[in-house]
Amino acid sequence: MVDSFSLDSRLLIREFDEDRDLKVVGKLERNCEIETKKGVSIFTSMMDDPLSRIRFYPLHVMLVAELLESRELVGVVRGCIKSMRTPSESLLKIGCILGLRVSPAHRRKGVGLKLVTSVEEWMLRNGAEYAWLATEKNNNASRNLFTNKCKYMSLSSLAIFLHPISVPSKHISKDIKIEKVNLDQAISLYRRTLRAKELYPLDMDAILKEKLNLGTWVSYYKDEGRLNLQAESHEDIITDEITSSWIIFSIWNTCEASKLQLKKSRPLRFLDTTLNHARDKIFPCLRMSVSDSCCRPFGFLFLYGLHGEGDNLGELMESIWRFTSRLGESLKDCRVVITELGFGDPLVNHVPQTSSMSCIDDIWFTKRLSNGDEKDDQVLMKRQIGNVFIDPRDF
Ligand SMILES: CC(C)(COP(=O)(O)OP(=O)(O)OC[C@H]1O[C@@H](n2cnc3c(N)ncnc32)[C@H](O)[C@@H]1OP(=O)(O)O)[C@@H](O)C(=O)NCCC(=O)NCCS
Fold it and tell me: Pfam families of this UniProt entry (predicted)?
């Protein structure tokens, strides 16, 4: 049990200061590496930029916990805020908690709780109505902290699909065309297709303009028609008369922002599930040998913004995975293709079921922060997410 009064007088929660804290935060995060059963640890290399996971959000913060007496940094948390829209056109401001870490020597003293309440206060001050985070199923410390102490509810029903880029990928069927669309076309296509989602970001155009976004493509059957890319109105690019089955998708290149690295670590003394988010669940699914993968950091391509229409989507989905794997083969240190879909997404049943495809349940937690209009609770608090847009910036 934590003595919060004495902790308050010994601990300062303040904003990360790049000049002062950069090295120390790097060290702290390395101390929180995740040990796997094979005696290696997973380390997310931020490429010397601890803000790399949040800087794509217009509103973001990184807080550190500092012991007043020794000035030692003992914990860190990141937060960001995004605006999302629901099908009823409601606007929701949602805060996401990312990268919570407390140094092992200072755990179970209330530091984690203090960091979470501080980042929630920052979110509230900046207008967030809900807070969200993802954590690993077996991470008892984190689950207890968020559900017992901070009163978050779990939201199930998201699945992460991973496919290693280890072998040359198969050819794409000659019957299928995969065509890149330009930024304006992508924006207007998403303006139309995102409306099918229960929740989607308001700043899709900003996501598409980010340097990590490699582009947007449309996949369709050649003999079912063609894209009308010359259409005067972007609304007319794809109409039912032009092509009956098609999928739009975009690709985010995480290799440029952060990389996963596996390191040989101490022999495993206990299974400490200190996972941060989905990226930390990736290694077990890669089926790479430890000696293979310990050497150098690697990144992945994230398939996002997937939306399909028509009856014949299976082969199109396969072609998209092959296309993305091929793209990954040409990128330095890229080893995996990943996507995440809600179970209610019509495309979830069309993800290729090959022996090298892995699927992980992703558990999200949420809580209402403000006392505002509760009608939107139906979307966020009903404990199930059906068909939502998965933000590539969250990965
Ligand atoms: C999760 C983590 C941040 C908790 O930090 P902490 O400073 O130890 O947490 P606190 O001392 O504030 O604990 C608050 C509550 O969380 C729960 N909790 C914390 N550690 C726990 C553990 N090892 N086992 C079970 N419950 C635990 C308890 O309910 C605790 O309250 P109590 O001590 O009154 O029982 C820390 O263990 C950590 O850095 N883990 C590695 C990274 C990680 O998993 N981050 C979370 C990703 S979302």
Answer: Acetyltransf_1
**pLDDT score of 361:** 77
Question: Does 269 score more than 70 pLDDT?
Answer: no
- Ligand 1 touching residue 99 (CB < 6 A): no
Contact predicate 35/271, CB 8 Å: yes
CA distance 338 to 252: 10
pLDDT tens for each residue of 34-55 = 544 444 444 455 546 778 778 8
For residue 100, the ligand 1 atom closest to its alpha carbon is 45
Q: 135 CB less than 6 Å from ligand 1? A: yes
The reply to whether the predicted model has a pTM over 0.85 is: no
C-alpha to C-alpha distance for 186 and 189, rounded to whole angstroms: 5
> Percent of the chain scored above 70 by pLDDT?
74
